[in-house]
Each structure stands twice: as structure tokens, then as C-alpha cells.
Amino acid sequence: MNIAITFRQMESTEAVRTYAHEKIAKLQKFLRRPMETQVTVSVQKTLHIAEVVVHAGGDHYHAKESCGDMYGSIDRVIDKLEAQMRGDHDIRISKTKNRGERPSARLLPTGSDGE
Fold first, then answer.
1. How far apart are CA 115 and CA 110, in angstroms?
2. CATH architecture of 2-97
3. Greatest pairwise CA separation for the chain in angstroms
4. Which of 31, 39, 102, 104 sits a CA distance of 20 to 30 A from 70?
5. What is the pTM (predicted TM-score) of this model?
6. Domain boundaries, the chain
């Protein structure tokens, strides 16, 4: 797991760096491969912006959020990424459950009388 954090137009603080690192690390449980992550946090006037790009093998996720608080922005962007990853995971699970089974096979009667 590789997490790079970039600060733009703001002072680099260890508290924000640690908070972002801990939150991003929890996303690894949704991925099968080690993730490469680029986190960019910035301030524009009164908006605190967090942008995260995650690469894990062939999977790519991107989210950007802004609000009045940096910690809130980080929480929101993590929620967005988690929703994206959960959606992909659910799609993969449903595809593997239905693999090899024809949809029409579920509609046929299972009786042994041959009708």
C-alpha cells in the first residue's frame, strides 16, 4: 500500500496527514490488490478540498469533495470512494454467483415427470 499526500496552498500538518492516512488505509479491505493512492488536500478561500485517486491493479477510483472543514472533506471523500468500491464489489459478486447458469434454466420446472 502506497499513500502519497500533497498539500496545496496550505501548511502541511502532521495531524491532517495522519488522519488522511488512517482513513485511506481502511479502504484496502475492499480491494484484492495493493493500492496506490494519491491524496491532494488544498484550501481555496474558505473551502477545504480533498481529492483522492486510487489505483489497485486494473481498478481505478476517483473522488473529490469540499466543505468548510478539512476533516469533513476527508470523511466525505472516503465515503464516496467506499460507495464506489462497494458497488464494484457487489457487481463482481453477482457475476460470480450467476456464472455458468442460464437465466432460462431457473424458469424450467424441476419435476421428474418430463413435462
1. 9
2. 2-Layer Sandwich (3.30)
3. 77
4. 31
5. 0.75
6. 2-97
